[in-house]
Each structure stands twice: as C-alpha cells, then as structure tokens.
Specification:
The protein has about 550 residues and is α+β, with helices and mostly antiparallel strands. It has one domain: TolB, C-terminal domain (Neuraminidase, 6 Propeller). About 15% of the residues lie in helices and about 30% in strands. Strands 9-8-13-12-11-10 form a six-stranded mixed β-sheet, with no helix packed on it. It has a five-stranded antiparallel β-sheet with strand order 1-28-27-26-25, with no helix packed on it. Strands 3, 4, 5, 6 and 7 form a five-stranded antiparallel β-sheet that branches. The longest helix is centred in the first third of the chain and has 13 residues. The radius of gyration is 22 Å and the shape is globular. Bound molecules: MU-OXO-diiron and calcium ion (2 copies). The site of one calcium ion has 3 residues, from loops.
Length: about 550
C-alpha cells in the first residue's frame, strides 16, 4: 500500500468504507483491479451487481474541438436536438437540455427518456426584447414552451444506432404552460397567493428518480423567466414530480422540499425505510439540504408513495457542527430572537419553505461554494456533493465533498465529511457539476466552466468542458480520468446509464453560447446537414464492454 493509499484507507476507519476495503483487498497491496474486487464486496453488502467496466478506456487529453470527443472505442448517436418533432401531435424538443433519465420499456434497447430543458435563448429561440424592454406574448409563449421537460421514446435499431420513435404513444411535452398542483405546507397558503394549482415548470436543471418510478425535476434559476412572463415567482423554485408513462398522474410541485435554486433531487431510504431526498442549491454561499419523509416507504403502494414527499422534515447541513438542523417554523422563530422583521416574515411553515435559503442561514446552515448535484453512493451510502466553485472565496475550480452519515444511515442527524476531490490543474478538472455512479463505484462527473471563461486565463489548461470518471473505491480513489470533451462553449449535463450500463445518455447544453452574430456561430454542433444554428441535443454513448 502506498503512503497515499494508506492515508486514504485510514480516513475511512469507523465507516462502512473500511469494511468494504478490508473485505475486498485485505491489508495487502491494492491490486490494479481493486475496483472490481471492491464491487464484489459491495454486492455482498448492499446487493449491488457489477455490470460493466467504466474504466476500460484510455483517458483523452483536453481539446477545444467543436465536437463531442470520446475515449477511443466509444461512439455517440444524436437522439434528439432542439426543434425536432417528438410525436404525432407535432410537439417539438425543447432548448438547452439538461437532466436525462431512462425508463426501460424493453431493457437496454427501448425506453422512455425524460429530458429537462433548462433555459431559452434570445438569439436561437425567441428573439430580443422590444424598445420598451418587453417580450411579446408570442415570445413569452415560446420561452415557456422551450423549457420544462420532454418525454421521448428511444430505441436501438438493428444496426445498434439509437433513434427517437416519433410514433410513440407516450411522447409528450411538459412545459411552462402545463398545469401543476402544489402539495405540502405551502399549498393554498397566503405566501403563494392562496394557490393550489399553478402554471408550468421552467428552469429545469438536474433531477432524480423516485423509488416508485417517477421523475423529480429541479426548478433552478427561475427568477428571470417568472419575471419576463409576469408569473408569481413563489410558484417556481420547487422540486416537481412527473410520471413519464402516465399523463393522468397530475404533475405536482412538492413544497415540503423547500423553494430555492434547486439543482437536483437524490433519493434514498433511511435505515427505518423513510424516504430521504438530498438537494443542492446552486448559488454562491448556499446550503445543502435533505428532506426526510414522515411516513415509511411501502413498495407495494407503488406510485401512491408520491404522498411521502408531501409531509416530513426539511433539514439543512451545519458543516461546522456536523449536524442536520430541522427547518421548522419553531426553529426559525427561535433563531430570529426578537428581530421583528424576521418574525413578521416567518409565521408559518409555508413561509419557511417558500423563503428557504434565508431561513436556512438563520438556523445555522453553512453557506457553501455552489452546491450542485448530489449522489448517494450505492456502495457505502456516503453522499457526494459537487461544489462547483465560488470566486467570492477564491475557490475557482470547485471540489467534490463527501458526507459520511453517522452509522451509514441516511436518516442520521449527524455526519462527518471530507473533500473527496478538488478541481484544479493537479486533478485535471475544474467546476464539477452533475454526478452519476456506475456499478464499479466510479463517479462520473461533468464540468461546468462558464462559456465566457472557457479556453482562457486560468481555465485555458482545461480547454472545453468535459466528462471525467473518478473511482470512489480502490487504488485510484479520487483520481480523475477524462472520458469526453464537449463541443465549443457547451456543457455536458445530466448523464444517465441504461440499467445494464450498455448506453450512457447525456445532454449537450448550450453549444456556441457566446455567439453574437447569427451568421457566425461559434459552434455548429451537432453538424447536421441543413442546420444554420448550433442545437442543444441529447446523445446516446455506446461502446461499453462487459
Ligand atoms: Fe443548472 Fe446548477 O446547473
Ligand atoms: Ca447543473
Ligand atoms: Ca451547471
């Protein structure tokens, strides 16, 4: 064991990770295939099956090429891009796709793909404001239609190429115009103008999958669209739930999970079977949250389990004390002491969930460096949080934080944490954003260096945004290996595997974002014949070997 590995090993004494490491490797040398051995131990402990090796590739070097560049032996198919017709009604695929989630119909060969659409574009979608600084109703409608989500049906044809099936009976759009119902403490409250039903979802960034087979989508930077469209902004900034297969499952916004610039929703179970949802708030100096349901998950209840997200406790992480602090009206009012302005603002739990960030800071939530995606390790139930960056703190390259919940229980109210990996030249990545695990315990991480800073100054070294594989167990723990490089000015977002990990879906968001002259786009990805603008799109990456 090298000194570095010994130190990493000792870090985990007293946690589930130690048990895994000991079981898989003993105290001897870490073999080159330690990852695979670790998985066998993990399968034993948590019932997880090794499927495919994500480490069977030679890492690429950073590049500024205007293409999705992949490690040798892998290829991609463009499944859907902005403006493509998705069904027989003529509905079209939205703009700036983000989170993806595959729902199998026929294993790894056919399924529904949920895709978030995060924001629109004056240049490429709906045009500029008029002289009064306003958009026309037609522009607003387009702005709302191109956000939200798409449900598309995708399949692998006889040649192994992934395509969209536009004859699908399921394919439909959820947009800024779709009716939603509110659930939880803010429903019908004065704080949301007594609303029980609201219009639409937009600013849909990342998300998560529930244990009962629905999708959670996170409303992130909703403020501008709400203002431009003249909508009540307390109706946005929530976690929304949709059933891709069932249009009769009314789209809903779960207010018990708080309202902020939601990045994601990572779902797990506490040791006593209550549902837990970990969430990031993508702002500088914002907090990490988890929600724990009041009632227990009962698998046989199927989609009726959605009611678990209506009642429970929202917690914020106090990283200085290693505690999860309940965001209750009592705690908030106690923390306000005799400050009248705060006592006037926070009178009910609805006020707490609607104005969540301020309440979180009041009760001792730790302001952090843009907490974006969160993933729960399927191996040891440690919780990984991408802290993208925060120039206010001189944290220009970000880091990935790992929470170790007490007793490996996601329901614990105390935790310890470590900085699992830090962005910078030494690691090869900057600005970690979305995360996903494969069955070898590798954390797949995409980066989000802002378009205006790519390929210049302190970000020159990294070239375009990319995708990295970071093992979380074994010899290479914490080391980043680059798997993909994004087209120019694009960000890779929302990676998700098919169940057997033969295909990885990922969004290419905002290629050519810095374009200011439509005649001279800075990217032309996906380089399709007849296109005159770059188009955000979703690709299917194949080439994974068993
Ligand atoms: Fe939409 Fe925080 O990325
Ligand atoms: Ca993101
Ligand atoms: Ca981002």
């Amino acid at each position: 064991m090298t000194e570095l590995n010994r130190r990493k090993f000792l870090t985990y004494v007293g946690t589930g990770v130690t048990a895994l490491t000991v079981a898989s490797t003993g105290l001897g040398t870490f073999a080159p295939r330690a990852e695979a051995k670790g998985v066998e131990a993990a399968s034993h402990l948590f019932g997880f099956q090794k499927k495919v090796s994500g480490l069977n590739f030679n890492p690429i070097t950073p590049t500024d090429k205007d293409d999705l560049v992949l490690a040798k032996g892998y290829k991609y198919d463009v499944v859907a891009a902005y403006g493509d017709v998705i069904n027989k009604n003529g509905d079209t695929f939205g703009f700036n796709n983000d989170f993806t989630l595959y729902f199998p119909i026929d294993g790894d060969n056919r399924g529904l793909l949920w895709v978030n659409h995060e924001y629109s574009s004056e240049l490429f979608v709906h045009g500029a404001r008029n002289a009064n600084g306003k958009y026309t109703p037609a522009q607003i409608e387009k702005m709302l239609y191109t956000q939200g989500g798409s449900i598309i049906e995708v399949y692998r044809d006889k040649d192994g190429v992934w395509r969209m099936d536009t004859n699908s009976k399921y394919a439909r759009r959820i947009t800024g115009l779709t009716p939603f119902q509110l659930t939880g403490p803010a429903k019908g409250s004065n704080t949301v103008g007594s609303a029980t039903n609201v219009q639409g979802t937009f600013a849909n960034c990342s998300g998560g999958m529930t244990l009962w087979g629905t999708v959670l989508s996170a409303e992130e930077n909703f403020e501008d669209t709400a203002k431009d469209a003249g909508l009540n902004d307390t109706h946005y900034g929530w976690i929304v739930e949709i059933d891709p297969f069932d249009p009769n499952f009314k789209p809903r916004k779960h207010t018990a999970l708080g309202r902020f610039n939601h990045e994601n929703a990572a779902v797990g179970l506490t040791n006593d079977n209550r549902v837990v949802v970990y969430m990031g708030d993508d702002k500088k100096d914002a907090c990490v949250y988890k929600f724990i349901s009041k009632n227990k998950y009962v698998a046989s209840r199927g989609k009726a389990n959605a009611d678990l997200l209506e009642e429970g406790t929202l917690y914020v992480a106090d990283m200085g004390k290693g505690t999860w602090v309940p965001l209750t009206i009592d705690n908030v009012r106690k923390a306000a002491k005799d400050k009248k302005e705060i006592l006037d603002k926070y009178k009910t739990q609805a006020d707490v969930v609607v104005y969540c960030h301020e309440a979180a800071l009041l009760v001792g939530g730790t302001p952090t460096d843009r907490p974006e995606d969160v993933e729960i390790s399927p191996f040891d139930k440690t919780v990984f949080i991408a802290h993208t960056n925060n120039d206010k703190h001189g944290n220009f390259h970000g880091h990935i934080t790992r929470f170790l919940e007490s007793n490996d229980d996601l329901g614990a109210l105390t935790f310890d944490f470590e900085i699992f990996a830090a962005g910078g030249k030494q690691s090869g990545f900057s600005a970690p954003d979305n995360l996903t695990f494969d069955s070898l315990g590798n954390l797949w991480t995409v980066t989000d260096i802002s378009s205006s800073k790519l390929n210049s100054g302190i970000y020159k070294h990294f070239a375009n945004n990319g995708m990295f594989v970071i093992p979380t167990i074994g010899e290479n723990t914490g080391e980043a290996f680059q798997f993909a490089s994004a087209p120019r000015e694009a960000e890779l977002t929302g990676p998700s595997f098919t169940p057997n990990e033969t295909t990885l879906f990922i969004s290419i968001q905002h290629p050519g974002e810095e374009t200011d002259d439509l005649k001279k786009p800075t990217s032309m990805w996906p380089h399709r014949k007849g296109d005159s603008i770059p188009r955000p799109g979703v690709v299917a990456i194949t080439g994974f070997k068993y």
